[in-house]
UniProtKB/TrEMBL annotation:
Residues 448-484 are annotated as: Disordered. It is found in: Cytoplasm. The gene is obgE. InterPro entries: G_OBG, GTP-bd, GTP-bd_Obg/CgtA, GTP-bd_prot_GTP1/OBG_C_sf, GTP1-OBG_CS, GTP1_OBG_dom, GTP1_OBG_dom_sf, OBG_GTPase. Its cofactor is Mg(2+). PANTHER family: DEVELOPMENTALLY REGULATED GTP-BINDING PROTEIN-RELATED, MITOCHONDRIAL RIBOSOME-ASSOCIATED GTPASE 2. An essential GTPase which binds GTP, GDP and possibly (p)ppGpp with moderate affinity, with high nucleotide exchange rates and a fairly low GTP hydrolysis rate. Plays a role in control of the cell cycle, stress response, ribosome biogenesis and in those bacteria that undergo differentiation, in morphogenesis control. It comes from Microbacterium fluvii. This is GTPase Obg. The lineage of its organism: Bacteria, Bacillati, Actinomycetota, Actinomycetes, Micrococcales.
Length: 501
């Protein structure tokens, strides 16, 4: 059974925006008192919240599919639809949020930090909001746009002040159990610890957290054992404690060789840009199990060489608690010094990042097709406008044509080489396909037509009076020509008969 999860993929769906309403106010003696359709509500968004009370991503491992509420539809009498209910997802401190492609979106380090990972859809405008002095009674409303839907990756990196590293069965779990209230699983076989354990240690006036990282072996930075899976939990630690087993019975192992292997793996692990490499952080050595006489002798033997390398060395025993007080106070001094340096650094000015619109609000890409070129229109505005359009309503389609023309799409299509009848697609993939008719100019406000219709989209083939008159004259002229030809043939026949007589 899974008890610890530090990587998970969430399948998120934000709420859809509600549709706007088409309504006309009716009062006594005023059957058409003006449009009063309300706007649709915005869709709910999915928000990740850094919560210190959450320590694992286990709940998202079992339930990875999460969705926010949809916005309500607009109603008559200028009543707007209700906004969709947003969904807050608490995550542990130290969670790194990545896109489906692996790009880092946010690092949840501050308690209460909120990141919107799935924005909700925009509610559609009702016909009351679309009315203006030229279009006084719109017979259409805008549809709500769909919310964001996709995957995000969550990766947990433990936030602790001190990390305990070492070979399997070196006594790391016993050490954290001896100096804190943590109660990890302890057994006499390798890889007993399958996930990091956190403990809180008090050393005088200093309180700090200690992380027990699963055992490292040679090749851990390349994926051997459990090291690569959990080395990332060491990234955020201030200091490292090398727990060395002085009572190991495995042939070919001793504290010095174990330390060399661990240092090589820590040096080979790449930390994110801007962080201090693991080997450049404060490090101390804890020679464990000195309650065993042979281990005590070995510790006395290797201690001078370790001190010659520049390490602070502590001989400890998790059974008799020998040396634990000195070790914890030394770690407290390191943590306090680091915190003082961090507090003395000038606080960076808070930067507010606002989305900056691109220089070109849309672009046109010409693609070759089996039946000629396809002109694909790309851009946030054209795609959103298409999503908001009710294609069953002629007036709404005409409004879309006006918006695209005012944006400059008509001129851009001309420059790209499009001609009347060319295939135009808005958006990626299948998108919305049009047969481009450049005659759709922006003049809907100046045209009079029943609500919900647009005379520019009139596909009626009924002939006008002038066309019928012209066709009638053409038929009369053709009949006169035919009668003249028959008369000429008759006269020619009579002339031939007279000649024969």
């Amino acid at each position: 059974m899974v008890t610890f999860v530090d990587r998970v993929t969430l399948h998120l769906r934000a709420g859809k925006g509600g549709n706007g309403c088409v309504s006309v106010r009716r009062e006594k003696f005023k059957p058409l008192a003006g449009p009063d359709g309300g706007n649709g509500g915005h869709g709910g968004e999915v928000v990740l919240v850094a919560d210190p009370q959450v320590t694992t991503l286990l709940s998202y491992h079992h339930s990875p599919h999460r969705a926010a509420g949809n916005g309500g539809f607009g109603m008559g009498d200028n009543r707007s639809g209700a906004a969709g209910e947003s969904l807050d997802l608490p995550v542990p401190l130290g969670t790194v949020v990545k896109s489906a492609d692996g790009d880092v979106l946010a690092d949840m380090l501050t308690p209460g930090m909120r990141v919107v990972v799935a924005p909700g859809g925009i509610g559609g405008l009702g016909n009351a909001s679309l009315a203006n002095p030229k279009r006084k009674a719109p017979g259409f409303a805008l549809l709500g746009t769909p919310g964001w839907e996709g995957d995000v990756q969550l990766e947990l990196k433990t936030v602790a002040d001190v990390a305990l590293v070492g070979y399997p069965s070196a006594g790391k779990s016993s050490l954290i159990a001896a100096v804190s209230a943590a109660r990890p699983k302890i057994a006499d076989y390798p890889f007993t610890t399958l996930h990091p354990n956190l403990g809180v240690v008090e050393a005088g006036d200093v309180r700090f957290t200690v992380a027990d990282v699963p055992g490292l072996i040679e090749g851990a930075s390349e994926g051997r054992g459990l090291g690569l899976e959990f080395l990332r939990h060491v990234e955020r630690c201030t200091a490292l404690v090398h727990v060395l087993d002085c009572a190991t019975l495995e042939p070919g192992r001793d504290p010095l060789s174990d330390l060399d292997v661990i240092l090589a793996e820590l040096g080979a692990y790449p930390v994110p840009e801007g962080q201090v490499p693991l080997l450049e952080r404060p490090q101390v050595v804890a020679l464990n199990k000195v309650d065993v006489p042979e281990a005590k002798d070995l510790a006395d033997l290797v201690r001078p060489e370790l001190e010659a390398r520049g390490f602070r060395v502590f001989e400890i025993s998790t059974v008799s608690h020998a040396g634990l007080r000195q070790l914890t106070f030394a770690l407290g001094e390191i943590v306090a010094e680091h915190r003082a340096v961090a507090a003395a650094e000038p606080v960076a000015e808070r930067v507010v990042i606002r989305p900056k619109g691109s220089e070109a609000e849309f672009s046109i890409r010409v693609e070759g097709g089996s039946y000629g070129d396809i002109y694909r229109i790309l851009g946030a505005k054209p795609v959103r406008w298409v999503q908001q359009t009710d294609f069953q309503n002629e007036e709404a389609v005409g409004y879309l044509a006006d918006r695209l023309e005012k944006l400059g799409v008509e001129d851009a299509l001309y420059r790209a080489g499009a001609v009347a009848g060319a295939t135009v697609v808005i958006g990626e993939g299948d998108g919305i396909v049009f047969d481009w008719q450049p005659a759709l100019s922006s003049a809907a406000e100046l045209m009079t037509a029943p609500r919900g219709t647009d005379p520019r989209l009139d596909q009626s083939t009924r002939r006008t009076t002038s066309q019928r008159r012209e066709r009638y004259h053409e038929r009369m002229d053709a009949k006169a020509e035919a009668r003249a030809e028959l008369e000429a043939e008759r006269l020619a026949t009579l002339a031939d008969e007279d000649d024969q007589k």
